[in-house]
Write a sequence for this structure.
């Protein structure tokens, strides 16, 4: 399986990602964890460029292409080999983030992003995109007090990002699931497990190489 954890900054997705990955490993599953941007030597170098405040003059299109470059390296170097080896691949962000942040948030056309994503990923798509949804007030209480270059963007940007995630789930209900992440960590984790049980139990296995 290839599962992607998504959500606005402050949604708690990374906390749930780490908890779920640890539970899977404890249960004996062979887990491959990746994060975006990053996950490879090249990807981590790109991550530094993207999140550092000193690069405030970076254009939006350059930003999108750097995310995609990191993603291309990650898919080819790590994700595809892990899936071919039969591992459970868990990703902290993937294409949905680019659609939300550089697309809806920044203003780049959706189709332009999808065209570049097809080239960057070779058409690889997740089995399920898990979107952890919270209102802005809750997210603000959870966000890092020292935001990176992307996290520091204004409230109207964050509103568009959240709306994009919800719109993506509405458009692709078979491959996207929205989880109400406003409750405590245990409650969100329970919702995560219930969602995975409902969506993946008895679902056909991914074919190697797809």
């Amino acid at each position: 399986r290839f599962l992607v954890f998504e959500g606005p900054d402050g949604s708690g997705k990374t906390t749930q990602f780490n908890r779920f990955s640890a539970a899977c490993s404890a249960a004996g599953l062979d887990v491959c964890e990746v994060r975006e941007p990053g996950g490879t030597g090249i990807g981590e170098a790109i991550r530094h460029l993207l999140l550092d405040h000193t690069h405030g003059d970076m254009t939006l299109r350059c930003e999108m292409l750097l995310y995609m470059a990191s993603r291309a390296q990650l898919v080819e170097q790590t994700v595809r080999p892990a899936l071919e080896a039969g591992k459970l691949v868990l990703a902290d962000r993937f294409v949905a983030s680019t659609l939300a942040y550089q697309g809806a948030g920044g203003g780049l056309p959706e189709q332009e992003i999808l065209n570049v994503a097809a080239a960057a990923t070779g058409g690889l798509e997740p089995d399920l995109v898990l979107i952890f949804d919270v209102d802005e007030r809750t997210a603000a209480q959870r966000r890092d007090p020292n935001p990176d270059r992307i996290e520091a963007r204004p409230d109207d940007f964050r509103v568009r990002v959240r709306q994009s995630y919800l719109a993506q789930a509405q458009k692709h209900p078979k491959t996207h699931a929205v989880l109400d992440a406003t409750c405590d960590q245990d409650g969100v984790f329970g919702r995560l497990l219930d969602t995975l049980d409902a969506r993946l139990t008895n679902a056909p296995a991914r074919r190697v190489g797809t």
The first strand starts at residue 2 and ends at 6. The two ends are 10 Å apart (CA to CA). Helices lie at 13-26, 41-51, 60-84, 95-105, 110-121, 136-142, 155-171, 185-200. The mean pLDDT is 93.
